[in-house]
Design brief:
The protein is of the alpha/beta class and 294 residues long. It folds into two domains: 247 residues, von Willebrand factor, type A domain (Rossmann fold, 3-Layer(aba) Sandwich), CATH 3.40.50.410; 36 residues, no CATH class. The protein has ten helices and ten strands. Helix 1 crosses helix 5.
Protein backbone atom coordinates (compact mmCIF):
# COMPACT_ATOMS: atom_id res chain seq x y z
CA UNK A 1 0.00 0.00 0.00
CA UNK A 2 2.85 2.40 0.87
CA UNK A 3 4.49 1.68 -2.48
CA UNK A 4 1.20 2.41 -4.27
CA UNK A 5 0.88 5.74 -2.42
CA UNK A 6 4.43 6.69 -3.41
CA UNK A 7 3.64 5.87 -7.04
CA UNK A 8 0.45 7.97 -6.89
CA UNK A 9 2.23 10.96 -5.33
CA UNK A 10 4.87 10.77 -8.06
CA UNK A 11 2.15 10.59 -10.71
CA UNK A 12 0.31 13.55 -9.15
CA UNK A 13 3.51 15.61 -9.35
CA UNK A 14 4.02 14.65 -13.01
CA UNK A 15 0.42 15.55 -13.82
CA UNK A 16 0.84 18.90 -12.03
CA UNK A 17 3.95 19.79 -14.06
CA UNK A 18 2.33 18.84 -17.38
CA UNK A 19 -0.95 20.60 -16.60
CA UNK A 20 0.61 23.86 -15.39
CA UNK A 21 2.80 24.07 -18.49
CA UNK A 22 -0.24 23.65 -20.72
CA UNK A 23 -2.38 26.10 -18.75
CA UNK A 24 0.32 28.78 -18.83
CA UNK A 25 1.13 28.26 -22.50
CA UNK A 26 -2.30 27.76 -24.02
CA UNK A 27 -5.35 28.62 -22.01
CA UNK A 28 -4.71 32.02 -20.45
CA UNK A 29 -7.91 34.05 -20.55
CA UNK A 30 -9.69 31.52 -22.77
CA UNK A 31 -10.75 29.48 -19.73
CA UNK A 32 -12.34 32.51 -18.07
CA UNK A 33 -14.03 33.79 -21.20
CA UNK A 34 -15.47 30.38 -22.05
CA UNK A 35 -17.92 30.26 -19.15
CA UNK A 36 -20.98 32.27 -18.33
CA UNK A 37 -20.06 33.24 -14.79
CA UNK A 38 -22.60 33.56 -12.00
CA UNK A 39 -24.22 36.75 -13.16
CA UNK A 40 -23.85 40.43 -12.34
CA UNK A 41 -23.03 42.23 -9.11
CA UNK A 42 -23.67 45.87 -8.17
CA UNK A 43 -20.64 48.14 -8.62
CA UNK A 44 -21.67 51.82 -8.29
CA UNK A 45 -24.19 54.48 -9.35
CA UNK A 46 -23.53 57.18 -11.93
CA UNK A 47 -25.43 59.97 -13.69
CA UNK A 48 -28.07 58.91 -16.16
CA UNK A 49 -27.22 59.56 -19.84
CA UNK A 50 -29.67 59.47 -22.76
CA UNK A 51 -29.75 55.94 -24.13
CA UNK A 52 -29.21 54.22 -20.76
CA UNK A 53 -31.65 51.43 -19.96
CA UNK A 54 -34.38 52.98 -17.78
CA UNK A 55 -34.62 49.69 -15.89
CA UNK A 56 -31.23 50.43 -14.32
CA UNK A 57 -32.35 53.74 -12.76
CA UNK A 58 -31.76 53.79 -9.01
CA UNK A 59 -34.97 55.53 -7.87
CA UNK A 60 -33.83 55.98 -4.25
CA UNK A 61 -30.67 57.88 -5.22
CA UNK A 62 -32.56 59.75 -7.96
CA UNK A 63 -35.13 60.97 -5.41
CA UNK A 64 -32.44 62.10 -2.96
CA UNK A 65 -30.29 63.91 -5.56
CA UNK A 66 -33.21 65.27 -7.58
CA UNK A 67 -31.82 64.06 -10.92
CA UNK A 68 -31.58 60.57 -12.41
CA UNK A 69 -28.87 58.08 -11.51
CA UNK A 70 -28.39 54.55 -12.84
CA UNK A 71 -26.85 51.47 -11.24
CA UNK A 72 -23.67 50.08 -12.77
CA UNK A 73 -23.08 46.36 -12.62
CA UNK A 74 -20.00 44.30 -13.31
CA UNK A 75 -19.92 40.62 -14.16
CA UNK A 76 -19.16 38.36 -11.24
CA UNK A 77 -15.98 36.68 -12.41
CA UNK A 78 -15.17 34.34 -9.53
CA UNK A 79 -16.36 30.95 -10.67
CA UNK A 80 -16.86 27.58 -9.03
CA UNK A 81 -15.75 24.67 -11.19
CA UNK A 82 -16.99 21.26 -10.14
CA UNK A 83 -15.94 17.84 -11.39
CA UNK A 84 -18.21 14.79 -11.26
CA UNK A 85 -15.91 11.89 -12.11
CA UNK A 86 -16.93 8.28 -12.73
CA UNK A 87 -14.67 5.87 -10.79
CA UNK A 88 -16.73 2.71 -11.34
CA UNK A 89 -15.16 -0.58 -12.42
CA UNK A 90 -15.18 0.34 -16.11
CA UNK A 91 -12.59 3.05 -15.42
CA UNK A 92 -9.95 0.35 -14.94
CA UNK A 93 -10.32 -0.72 -18.57
CA UNK A 94 -7.60 0.20 -21.03
CA UNK A 95 -6.69 -1.61 -24.23
CA UNK A 96 -3.57 0.54 -24.28
CA UNK A 97 -1.20 1.49 -21.47
CA UNK A 98 -3.46 4.10 -19.87
CA UNK A 99 -6.77 3.06 -18.24
CA UNK A 100 -9.69 5.47 -18.50
CA UNK A 101 -9.38 6.31 -14.79
CA UNK A 102 -5.90 7.80 -15.33
CA UNK A 103 -7.12 9.82 -18.31
CA UNK A 104 -9.97 11.19 -16.18
CA UNK A 105 -7.38 12.28 -13.58
CA UNK A 106 -5.34 14.12 -16.24
CA UNK A 107 -8.39 15.87 -17.66
CA UNK A 108 -9.49 16.87 -14.16
CA UNK A 109 -6.01 18.22 -13.39
CA UNK A 110 -5.99 20.34 -16.53
CA UNK A 111 -9.37 21.85 -15.70
CA UNK A 112 -8.45 22.32 -12.03
CA UNK A 113 -5.17 24.13 -12.70
CA UNK A 114 -7.01 26.37 -15.15
CA UNK A 115 -9.28 27.31 -12.25
CA UNK A 116 -6.30 27.82 -9.92
CA UNK A 117 -4.63 30.17 -12.39
CA UNK A 118 -7.80 32.29 -12.43
CA UNK A 119 -8.25 32.19 -8.63
CA UNK A 120 -11.47 30.17 -8.91
CA UNK A 121 -12.73 27.40 -6.68
CA UNK A 122 -12.78 23.76 -7.75
CA UNK A 123 -14.55 20.80 -6.13
CA UNK A 124 -15.01 17.08 -6.75
CA UNK A 125 -17.53 14.28 -6.54
CA UNK A 126 -16.39 10.73 -7.29
CA UNK A 127 -19.20 8.32 -8.06
CA UNK A 128 -19.95 4.71 -8.93
CA UNK A 129 -23.61 3.81 -8.55
CA UNK A 130 -23.56 6.10 -5.50
CA UNK A 131 -21.52 9.06 -4.26
CA UNK A 132 -18.15 7.61 -3.21
CA UNK A 133 -16.30 10.78 -2.24
CA UNK A 134 -16.95 14.53 -1.93
CA UNK A 135 -14.32 17.27 -1.84
CA UNK A 136 -15.95 20.70 -1.28
CA UNK A 137 -14.91 23.54 -3.62
CA UNK A 138 -11.85 25.48 -2.58
CA UNK A 139 -8.96 27.43 -4.11
CA UNK A 140 -5.25 26.93 -4.47
CA UNK A 141 -2.56 24.52 -5.59
CA UNK A 142 -2.60 22.40 -2.41
CA UNK A 143 -6.33 21.81 -2.78
CA UNK A 144 -5.95 20.86 -6.45
CA UNK A 145 -3.19 18.36 -5.68
CA UNK A 146 -5.52 16.87 -3.06
CA UNK A 147 -8.23 16.57 -5.72
CA UNK A 148 -5.96 14.76 -8.23
CA UNK A 149 -4.68 12.41 -5.53
CA UNK A 150 -8.24 11.52 -4.56
CA UNK A 151 -9.17 10.56 -8.13
CA UNK A 152 -6.17 8.23 -8.33
CA UNK A 153 -6.35 6.86 -4.78
CA UNK A 154 -10.01 6.47 -3.82
CA UNK A 155 -11.17 2.87 -4.28
CA UNK A 156 -14.92 2.67 -4.97
CA UNK A 157 -17.02 0.52 -2.64
CA UNK A 158 -19.28 -0.29 -5.60
CA UNK A 159 -18.28 -1.35 -9.13
CA UNK A 160 -21.51 -0.39 -10.91
CA UNK A 161 -22.32 2.99 -12.46
CA UNK A 162 -25.25 5.33 -11.94
CA UNK A 163 -24.61 9.09 -12.20
CA UNK A 164 -28.03 10.15 -10.88
CA UNK A 165 -27.19 10.10 -7.12
CA UNK A 166 -24.08 12.21 -7.81
CA UNK A 167 -26.06 14.65 -9.98
CA UNK A 168 -28.71 15.04 -7.27
CA UNK A 169 -26.04 15.50 -4.58
CA UNK A 170 -24.32 18.19 -6.66
CA UNK A 171 -27.59 20.08 -7.05
CA UNK A 172 -27.93 20.21 -3.27
CA UNK A 173 -24.41 21.41 -2.45
CA UNK A 174 -23.53 23.75 -5.34
CA UNK A 175 -24.50 27.35 -5.96
CA UNK A 176 -26.54 28.29 -8.99
CA UNK A 177 -24.31 29.08 -11.97
CA UNK A 178 -21.44 26.75 -11.08
CA UNK A 179 -19.58 25.05 -13.93
CA UNK A 180 -20.01 21.27 -13.78
CA UNK A 181 -17.93 18.80 -15.79
CA UNK A 182 -19.51 15.34 -15.78
CA UNK A 183 -16.70 12.93 -16.80
CA UNK A 184 -17.54 9.32 -17.64
CA UNK A 185 -17.53 6.78 -20.46
CA UNK A 186 -21.36 7.09 -20.47
CA UNK A 187 -21.66 3.35 -21.06
CA UNK A 188 -24.34 1.18 -19.41
CA UNK A 189 -28.07 1.09 -18.88
CA UNK A 190 -27.96 3.91 -16.32
CA UNK A 191 -26.65 6.25 -19.03
CA UNK A 192 -29.64 5.68 -21.28
CA UNK A 193 -31.59 8.84 -22.04
CA UNK A 194 -34.79 7.65 -20.34
CA UNK A 195 -32.85 7.31 -17.08
CA UNK A 196 -30.86 10.56 -17.38
CA UNK A 197 -33.39 12.85 -19.02
CA UNK A 198 -34.94 14.42 -15.93
CA UNK A 199 -31.85 14.79 -13.66
CA UNK A 200 -29.64 16.14 -16.46
CA UNK A 201 -32.32 18.55 -17.70
CA UNK A 202 -32.70 19.97 -14.17
CA UNK A 203 -28.93 20.25 -13.77
CA UNK A 204 -28.55 22.01 -17.14
CA UNK A 205 -31.03 24.69 -16.01
CA UNK A 206 -29.14 25.38 -12.80
CA UNK A 207 -25.50 24.98 -13.87
CA UNK A 208 -23.22 25.39 -16.86
CA UNK A 209 -23.05 21.63 -17.48
CA UNK A 210 -20.41 20.08 -19.75
CA UNK A 211 -20.43 16.29 -20.34
CA UNK A 212 -16.97 14.84 -21.07
CA UNK A 213 -17.24 11.43 -22.77
CA UNK A 214 -14.06 9.40 -22.16
CA UNK A 215 -13.62 6.26 -24.24
CA UNK A 216 -10.99 3.64 -24.93
CA UNK A 217 -10.13 3.13 -28.64
CA UNK A 218 -11.56 -0.40 -28.46
CA UNK A 219 -14.90 1.03 -27.32
CA UNK A 220 -15.05 3.31 -30.35
CA UNK A 221 -13.87 0.86 -32.98
CA UNK A 222 -14.12 -2.75 -31.86
CA UNK A 223 -11.72 -5.22 -33.46
CA UNK A 224 -11.85 -8.74 -32.04
CA UNK A 225 -10.03 -11.44 -34.02
CA UNK A 226 -11.08 -15.04 -33.35
CA UNK A 227 -12.85 -15.95 -30.13
CA UNK A 228 -12.83 -13.42 -27.32
CA UNK A 229 -13.24 -13.83 -23.56
CA UNK A 230 -14.41 -10.68 -21.77
CA UNK A 231 -14.92 -9.87 -18.10
CA UNK A 232 -17.49 -7.27 -17.12
CA UNK A 233 -15.51 -4.81 -14.97
CA UNK A 234 -18.64 -3.75 -13.07
CA UNK A 235 -20.44 -7.10 -12.61
CA UNK A 236 -17.43 -9.42 -12.64
CA UNK A 237 -18.92 -12.14 -14.87
CA UNK A 238 -16.87 -13.64 -17.73
CA UNK A 239 -18.36 -14.39 -21.17
CA UNK A 240 -17.04 -15.92 -24.41
CA UNK A 241 -17.88 -14.47 -27.85
CA UNK A 242 -17.04 -14.94 -31.49
CA UNK A 243 -15.02 -11.86 -32.48
CA UNK A 244 -16.95 -10.88 -35.62
CA UNK A 245 -20.33 -11.38 -33.94
CA UNK A 246 -19.24 -9.38 -30.90
CA UNK A 247 -17.85 -6.55 -33.04
CA UNK A 248 -21.05 -6.15 -35.07
CA UNK A 249 -23.34 -6.33 -32.05
CA UNK A 250 -21.17 -4.01 -29.95
CA UNK A 251 -20.92 -1.33 -32.64
CA UNK A 252 -24.65 -1.47 -33.37
CA UNK A 253 -25.59 -0.97 -29.71
CA UNK A 254 -22.95 1.73 -29.14
CA UNK A 255 -23.98 3.69 -32.21
CA UNK A 256 -27.68 3.69 -31.32
CA UNK A 257 -27.06 4.66 -27.67
CA UNK A 258 -24.53 7.36 -28.53
CA UNK A 259 -26.77 8.91 -31.18
CA UNK A 260 -29.67 9.11 -28.74
CA UNK A 261 -27.50 10.44 -25.90
CA UNK A 262 -25.69 13.03 -28.03
CA UNK A 263 -28.98 14.19 -29.54
CA UNK A 264 -30.25 14.73 -25.99
CA UNK A 265 -27.13 16.79 -25.17
CA UNK A 266 -27.66 18.96 -28.24
CA UNK A 267 -31.38 19.45 -27.58
CA UNK A 268 -30.58 20.67 -24.05
CA UNK A 269 -27.82 23.02 -25.23
CA UNK A 270 -25.00 20.99 -23.66
CA UNK A 271 -21.52 21.31 -25.18
CA UNK A 272 -20.08 17.82 -24.94
CA UNK A 273 -16.40 16.93 -25.17
CA UNK A 274 -15.31 13.54 -26.54
CA UNK A 275 -11.85 12.25 -25.64
CA UNK A 276 -10.29 8.88 -26.49
CA UNK A 277 -7.36 7.33 -24.60
CA UNK A 278 -4.13 7.99 -26.48
CA UNK A 279 -5.60 11.12 -28.09
CA UNK A 280 -4.30 14.67 -27.59
CA UNK A 281 -6.73 15.50 -24.79
CA UNK A 282 -5.08 18.89 -24.25
CA UNK A 283 -5.86 19.90 -27.84
CA UNK A 284 -9.45 18.71 -27.53
CA UNK A 285 -10.07 20.78 -24.38
CA UNK A 286 -8.28 23.78 -25.87
CA UNK A 287 -10.54 23.65 -28.93
CA UNK A 288 -13.55 23.41 -26.59
CA UNK A 289 -12.49 26.62 -24.79
CA UNK A 290 -11.92 28.45 -28.07
CA UNK A 291 -15.26 27.27 -29.46
CA UNK A 292 -17.04 28.84 -26.51
CA UNK A 293 -15.37 32.24 -26.73
CA UNK A 294 -17.91 35.05 -27.10
Amino acid sequence: MKERIREILKEVREIEIQSKKVVNALFGGEYKSSFKGKGMEFHEVRDYFPGDDVRTIDWNVTARMNHPFVKRFIEERELTLFILADISGSGEFGSRREPKKDLIARISALLSFSAVKNNDKVGLILFSNDVEHYLPPNKGRKHTLHLIRDILLVEPKNKGTNPVPAIQFAQRVLHHGSIVFLISDFIGKNFEVDHLKMPLSLMAKKFDLVPIVVRDPLEKEANFPGRVMLRDAEKGNVLMFEGKELKDKFEEIRKLRDEELFRFFTTNGLDRIEITSGEDYVGVIHRFFRRRLP
